[in-house]
Design the sequence.
């Protein structure tokens, strides 16, 4: 795992540029809007090399983005939940609604994973935009009944297009911002863990 320094999340240059530079963000989004295996219509042969180089950089940004989200999840939820709770394998997670694939992480701006404990399914998520970072969790029975709906501390119940049946912590700074602090998110995970343990014990 990547070393963490000074309460910060290390960011690849591609991710930092995407978060902080609107021109980079616009360019990457435009390049990735072209379907894989396709070329933009009307392209001249003389433009092809530059396009392919730029498209490769955009694809790297997409994969670095997924890696950043996974690292953020790992250093918050991954390290903050008990090792005795069973963490799904990646194959199992892909069969659920977890967001793990790089393309899905890119489209949703989030990474979600799942543990099981005492017959409950415990979902945890991290989400990043250029404006903010959010963490969230949900607890369900095997039949899919949501068990964590009561707001507490900085967590609020949300059931909308962005967060469908999640307790979501109030947004904090984007990882590229000077005032971003991992310790704030880790403390929120600690409080969430206590809440989850009360539900699932």
Sequence:
């Amino acid at each position: 795992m990547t070393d963490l320094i000074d309460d910060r999340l290390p960011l690849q240059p591609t991710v930092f540029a995407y978060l902080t530079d609107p021109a980079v963000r616009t360019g990457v989004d435009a390049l990735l809007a072209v379907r894989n295996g396709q070329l933009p219509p009307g392209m001249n042969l003389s433009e092809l090399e530059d396009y392919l180089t730029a498209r490769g950089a955009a694809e790297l940004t997409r994969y670095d983005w997924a890696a950043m989200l996974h690292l953020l999840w790992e250093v918050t939820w991954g390290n903050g939940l008990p090792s005795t709770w069973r963490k799904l394998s990646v194959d199992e997670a892909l069969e659920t609604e977890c967001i793990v694939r790089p393309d899905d992480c890119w489209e949703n701006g989030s990474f979600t994973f799942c543990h099981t404990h005492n017959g409950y399914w415990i979902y945890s998520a991290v989400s990043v935009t250029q404006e903010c970072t959010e963490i969230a969790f949900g607890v369900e029975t095997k039949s899919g009944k949501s068990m964590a709906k009561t707001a507490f501390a900085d967590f609020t119940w949300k059931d909308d297009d962005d967060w469908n049946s999640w307790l979501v912590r109030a947004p904090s700074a984007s990882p590229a911002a000077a005032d971003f602090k991992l310790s704030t998110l880790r403390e929120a995970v600690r409080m969430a863990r206590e809440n989850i343990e009360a539900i699932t014990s």
The chain has one domain: 9-201. The longest helix spans residues 45-80. The first strand starts at residue 86 and ends at 87.
